[in-house]
Amino acid sequence: MKENQKTRKPALKKKTNHILLGIVALFVIGIAILSGLKSNSNSKVQVTKPGKTITATTNENGDAIIPISEISETATFYSYDKLDTKIEFLAVKASDGTIRTAFNTCQVCYASGKGYYKQEGNVLKCQNCGNTFKMDQVEVVKGGCNPVPIFENYKETTDSSIIIKNENFKEAESIFANWKN
After folding, report:
1. Is 65 in the same domain as 119?
2. How many CA atoms lie within 13 A of 7 on its CB side?
3. Predicted local confidence at residue 122, as pLDDT
4. Residues pairing with 90 in the sheet
5. Quick check: 141 pLDDT over 80?
6. Strand pairing category for 53-55 and 57-58
7. 10 falls in which pLDDT band (50, 70, 90)?
8. pLDDT, tens digit (0-9, with 9 covering 90-100), for 64-97
9. Which residues have CB under 8 Å from 124's CB, separation 6+?
10. Domain span at 1
């Protein structure tokens, strides 16, 4: 009987060690996850998935500041919250490397409230009429069913950012009056 107890004790001790090791591993993983969530919530650079919007950073004048480092071939959608009307705009890197900007509302369908764009593959698609618009056409084409361009003379581009003046948002406020996005 003594011999049987001796063989059980090491097996029980081994099992207990595995359980404790598993608990410690789960604890460490939990701390790592919580630390990651905490550091992401304080981050200034926000990464978004297509179809999601982030609030634009603004300066003391209410001008929107877009870090050029955030812009890629996937459209980045920004909301502007300094006025009473919800306004959304987008920035995207065209195939020639230039950064293009536009208000995220269709020049024809804006009054419907559903004339905004979502990216589908390599095009923007109007959610009202279904018209598609190539990324390379953003800020180039004006008139017709396309995003309302924010041309170079309405923004300032530096080495690190694009600044869109508050006055441009005030002027565009009326085309977002019925917006339902």
Report:
1. yes
2. 3
3. 86
4. 77, 102
5. yes
6. unpaired
7. low
8. 999 999 999 999 999 999 999 989 999 999 999 9
9. 75, 90, 117, 118, 132, 133, 134, 135, 138, 147
10. 1-43
